[in-house]
Amino acid sequence: MDEPQLISQAQKGSLAAFNQLVMAYQGTAYNVAYRVIGDQEAAADACQEAFLKAYRALKQYQGGSFKSWLLRIVTNACYDQLRHTKRRPATSLEDLTEGGEQEPPALTSHEDRPEEHLLREELHEMLQAGINQLPEDQRVVVVLSDAQGFSYQEIAEIINQPLGTVKSRLSRGRRRLRDILMQQRELLPEQYRL
Amino acid sequence: VAQEKNESQSNSEQARELLSAYLDGEVTATEQALVEHALAASSELREDLDTLRQTITLIVGLPKVAAPRPFTLSEADIGPAARPKAPSLPAWMSSWAMLTAALVCVVAGGGLFLSGTFPTPPSEVALAPQPIESRATEAEEDLALMAQTTGTPKSFKEEVTAESDEAAPAPDRRAVSPAPVGAAGVAPSQEAAAVSPTPARDASSAETTILPPTPLPVEAATPAEVPTFDYNILLPLTGIALLLFAGLGAWLAKHKA
User: Fold this and answer.
1) Taking CA atoms, what residue in B is nearest to A146?
2) Left, alpha or beta for A109 (phi > 0: left; psi -120 to 50: alpha)?
3) Chain B interface, Cβ < 8 Å to A
């Protein structure tokens, strides 16, 4: 069944049709949420909330890119989750002792040597830590553009802002991230140093 | 020289702002020319471009991660609130619908009860068709009684007229029930003459015409043939209509809840 048909059926209340849409987009939604929030559980919660909101707001969807519409809800859920996290910082023993978020399992395996795999993991954690330091509006645009590969036009639709705003936020976000990584240059694996 | 230096710095800053879009090929031809001119003139800007490109490459290389669980929704997740809503009434209308339903039940129930016990109005009794045989017998008995008391047998027609006038003196009664059977078994034409006040009718003509009770065709006395309107039917009909309305109100109120 094609997407417009599924959307139409879901709008009439078909949960099965909506769940097919969820299956199609949950990977992208989770990756966006994880890179924006930087925490697996919080990202999963944001996604779940976003899909629930999307189901309830289906009547308001009036054509255009369903993916962009859905990801707008996902990014808004991420903002909510970030605000929630700021209000209630994690203070569990596990959080305090482990000292940071572990990179979740990747979908594609590199099949590299153990030490190289370790270096990669380290790099990914540092990059994620750098992304986490960006202001939220710049973070979302950097993630959508560079981590997820969306075009400027798609990003403009997702964040509901003009193209000029996308360009400037992306430019500032990338440069800021570059500066963060430059400050930690010595910590980066040698082959990845800027 | 100072002006040229300022202009060069301004162009360099503008080019630095455009480096990100330049790497994505999202600049206009004019912007591209400006960036490339600035890059040719500044090693610092070239290094800037290089580190920016490396940063992007690193982020692009971030792996796609697997979702820890499926995010499909269940009936329990969505709850009744998320279901597409049935047509509903505002809160104040809903409460009115409940109240109306209760009132209508009382009215309709009372209506149905009364429709079985409601007394028939006297005017309708006068207009209602009577059994022909019993009325004819009554007329004959009356004639006999008259003959005994006055010695002058009255015209049966006159007798009928008197009886009809006494039973229902209102002349507009015919308008209410246009074709009732003659009150004493008289043919409609005779009854018309009896009901309408006829000045030409005198005593002599009445005395000479003694008419026997005219046997009417059976179908003339059958109510099915005569278009009459029974107002008692209104009560149960109204009751049923109101019950339907009450049911609709209760349904809407339930869906609103």
Assistant:
1) B60
2) beta
3) 17-21, 24, 26, 51-52, 54-56, 58-60, 62-75, 77-78, 81-84
